[in-house]
Amino acid sequence: MDDLTARVKRKARELGFTGVGIAEAAALEEEGAHLREWLDRGYHASMAWMARNTERRTDPRNILPGARSVVVVALNYYDDTPRPVEGRTGKISRYAWGDDYHDVMGEKLGALRLWLTGLRPGTEARLYVDTGPVMEKAWAARAGVGWLGKHANVITRDVGSWVFLGEILTTLALEPDAPALDRCGTCTRCIAACPTGAIVEPYVVDSNRCLSYLTIEHRGAIDGALHGQFDGGRASRRPRLNDGMRWTRGRSARSSGGAPSSARNSRASGGISGSCSGRLTPIVVFIHLMCDAARRGIGANRETHAPQTDHHRFRTGGAHRRPLRGARESRAGHI
Questions:
Q1: Could you say which of 130, 177, 182, 206 is catalytic?
Q2: Alpha-carbon span 138 to 310, nearest angstrom
Q3: Residue 2 appears among annotated catalytic residues
Q4: Least confident of 8-22, 121-135, 219-233, 312-326
Q5: How much is the pLDDT for 226?
Q6: Which residue from 16, 47, 125, 304 lies 20 to 30 Å from 132 (Cα-Cα)?
Q7: Residues 6+ positions from 296 with CB-CB distance below 8 Å
Q8: Can you state the angle between helices 101-117 and 3-14, rounded to 10 degrees?
Q9: CA 116 from chain center: how many Å?
């Protein structure tokens, strides 16, 4: 590893990121082809924004001319507070138990970007935290941060899928890491755990049946055929899939003693109805309302989405099919 790349990685970890990797800023040709196939199959449901700006999504140089590298970071957000086991309580994904991850990640990435642009005169850099036309899951895999699981989320060896992802596109030429190896093997626990059968095949998710889409992105009434499949009021598919994965269980608190304090501030318990600890952040209140709406079959009039829940797929070689992430166009107010 060259000295410049080592300095960038060291700085990322000093800022609190639990994972960091580098990828060459090049066209995502194969990933782009599978994105278009996924869109043609209608698996993006009503998320029309996913079909826009594919040229920018598939080549970071169309976002930042002269881009040479993509710096990908991960932040462990796991919180080991036990979930309520009884009662009529909504089951809220752990990512929403604390402060808005856009703020938490954005502050750290902003500091890294500012430091990075000062390394050499004329260096340019742009940062993304679940915003803009950046396929962050594809870049996380290419940068070796984690591999793409069959549940359409990035999995890391240390903490499973309990991570937020962020990216910096830069004109600095950094030494790329080797892509992550797919370690899912023959395991299909996440597919079996999905309560609505949204994982239609390994690495492929149909948003039309996905709880994350239905309770966050979807507008209007929820298909009555799905009303009985919300697993006791889960506001997202993610907690059940993460809790059931062998790469997640028993690893979450090991690497950092639980989530970093900055990723779990203002924590609220998993049982929102009548049982809370800490303060209810807007993110938690919103998802709680969405959970109640889902049980009643009512959609919400707001476009938002959870981390690692866009449902593209891509293939990086061999016979494996893997998901990719095409983030939305930047807009305020999403979670």
A1: 130
A2: 12
A3: no
A4: 312-326
A5: 79
A6: 16
A7: none
A8: 150
A9: 24
Give the tens place of pLDDT for each residue, 141-152.
999 999 999 998
Burial of 201 (0-12, 13-18, 19+ CB in 10 A): exposed
Label residue 303 exposed, middle or buried (CB < 10 Å: 0-12, 13-18, 19+): middle
Q: Who's near 224: CB < 8 A, 6+ residues apart?
A: 297
63 touches 169 (CB < 8 A): yes
Structure tokens at 260: 């970093």
> What mean pLDDT comes out for the span 70-74?
98
User: Looking at this protein, which amino acid is placed at residue 278?
Assistant: G
Count of positions (residues) in the chain: 335
What pLDDT shows up at residue 245?
54
Comparing C-alpha atoms, which of 316, 136, 32, 134 is closest to residue 145? 136
CA 313 → CA 10, 36, 53, 212, distances in Å?
A: 31, 10, 17, 16
What tokens does 108 get? 């750290």
**Which range is most confident: 9-23, 40-54, 94-108?**
9-23
> How far is it, in rounded angstroms, from Cα 49 to Cα 271?
33
Give the torsion sign (CA, 33, 308, 115, 10). Answer: negative
- Say what the alpha-carbon torsion angle 245, 251, 255, 258 is, to the nearest 10 degrees: 90
pLDDT at 150: 93
Question: CB of 11 within 8 A of CB of 5?
Answer: no
pLDDT at 246: 56
> Is the CB of residue 116 less than 8 Å from the CB of residue 303?
no
Cα 303 to chain center, whole Å? Answer: 16
pTM value? 0.74
State the DSSP code for 234: B
